[in-house]
Amino acid sequence: MPSHDVMPNMELYQPVQVEDALAIADRLAERGWLVGGGQDTYGWLKDRAKSADALIDLSAIESLRGIRETADGIEIGALTTLTEVATSDLVRGSFSLLADAAGKVASPQIRNIGTLGGNVSQDVRCWYYRRGLSCYRAGGNLCYADTPQGMNREHALFDQSRCVAAGASDTAPALVALDAYMVIQNSSGERVVSAQDFFVGPANDIENTTILRPGDILTAVRIPSAWANADFYWEKVADRNVWDFSLVNVAAAFKVSDGRIQDSRIVVGAVQTTPRRLTDVENAIRGSVRSIETAESVKEMTTTGARTLAHNGFKVPLMQNLVKRAISA
Amino acid sequence: MNSKLTRRRFIKGVIFSGAAATTGAGVYLANAQSGAGAAERLITMNINGRSRPVDVMPSETLAYTLRYKLDLTGTKIGCNRGECGACTVLIDGVPNYACSVLTHNVKDKAVVSIEGVKSADGSLHAVQQAFIDENSPQCGFCTPGQVMSAVALLNSNPRPSREEVRAGLSGNLCRCGAYEHYINGVLRASGQIA
Lengths: 329, 194
Prior knowledge:
Helix content of chain B: 25-40%
Radius of gyration of chain B: 20 Å
Order of helices and strands of chain B: HEHEEHEEEHHHH
CATH topology of the largest domain in chain B: Ubiquitin-like (UB roll)
Number of helices of chain B: 7
Largest interface: A-B, 41 and 43 residues
Structural class of chain B: alpha+beta
CATH architecture of the largest domain in chain B: Roll
Distance between the termini of chain A: 56 Å
Strand content of chain B: 5-15%
Mean pLDDT of chain B: 85
Largest sheet of chain A: 5 strands, antiparallel
Radius of gyration of chain A: 20 Å
Number of domains of chain B: 3
Number of strands of chain B: 6
Low-confidence stretches of chain A: none
Mean pLDDT of chain A: 96
Largest sheet of chain B: 5 strands, mixed
Number of strands of chain A: 12
Oligomer: heterodimer
Strand order of the largest sheet of chain A: 4-5-8-6-7
CATH class of the largest domain in chain B: Alpha Beta
Structural class of chain A: alpha+beta
Shape of chain B: globular
Distance between the termini of chain B: 66 Å
């Protein structure tokens, strides 16, 4: 037997009812760590970069799994795996944008256990932060990435505020594009927030990527029918087709009638901590045809306000071209 | 006892508890300890069709349990962080990275590792034989994981296209770069090349 342990020892709770999970999460508060599929969690714990006294494993709670039709759209349990989201007839049928995004996450094995709730709640990807260094996001007072020698090729173009890490989720931009809602429960009740408001950037909260707080459990994602069967466009660019996180991704939905764009939602991922919705571009192309000319006319607007770091300048033309493809496709 | 908290729910709810029995926490921790205490670590795993009792730490990964508790060392640990696929096993028929699953997550599930894919009479699985016939492995370290992904693929899709094989094995790295040979092996195992 090897002389090392893989992860430090800790308590493990495996509730089978969401009420029990809420009670445990409330009681443990900061000492507890919620686990869905664990594909983000275990890295933190194995590296000893973060720790918890107790794991609260949600994977045995059947009521948090599955995809159901609702009066207005669909509801996806937060513990539904990414494979289930990617292959579900309900999702594929009306919201293929989300299925396409879920099907591009990481690798088949990770999608087989990784959950939708975990994918949107995962922490940012930054070498320094994940290494356990005391950076701003970890409670320290400097950023190691935004330096002349820093490895920041994967980092953010927008909304940098001390921290320059980019969000890693592929499904988050798709959910913002679909105007989804996140259902959050804690011991005092339930609240429902829009996907757009669920994600938070470093200017508002530098130590969290979502509004979830100790005691909160993301239980479901609701997708209203407003954007069902719109014309969708999803594309992810990463170094490898498998495993790697997006360098930039785009999730877009268009409502077209008489050949003209009536309405659209264009959301870009991995260019800031939160999914970046391009409201100015959406407004500018309203009433236009989906064409290469329309796309060209908003090309500069796509990346207005970008502040490049030493090594991530390539993300500006990459983002412009992905949005161009989305609009002209 | 709170009527909502039956003994069964306690036992399912608490695997292991450390010494930190505090008030409020007590309802869960105290019961677990006054019951069987550390015995909650003792679980019965369904591995390769057999039930095997094993003492499992709360944060122990399946790969660790298989290799170092059950002596099933066919499952390889490459990166130990879900980035290579060498530790791939089937959990209820679905390929997963054993390094990135807690053993306590699979106690109600059927786990098949590379030791469990051959037939009862000892003859190799069609995928294993085809990998030999195609000289698929080079160094062989990733091979157990490649076999498991291929077995899962053929179970759900007996005659996959080359592209489908590529996708099916895409979560398994091969640092020798023998991908084409593995893909040929899967196509041979599915009877599409001879």
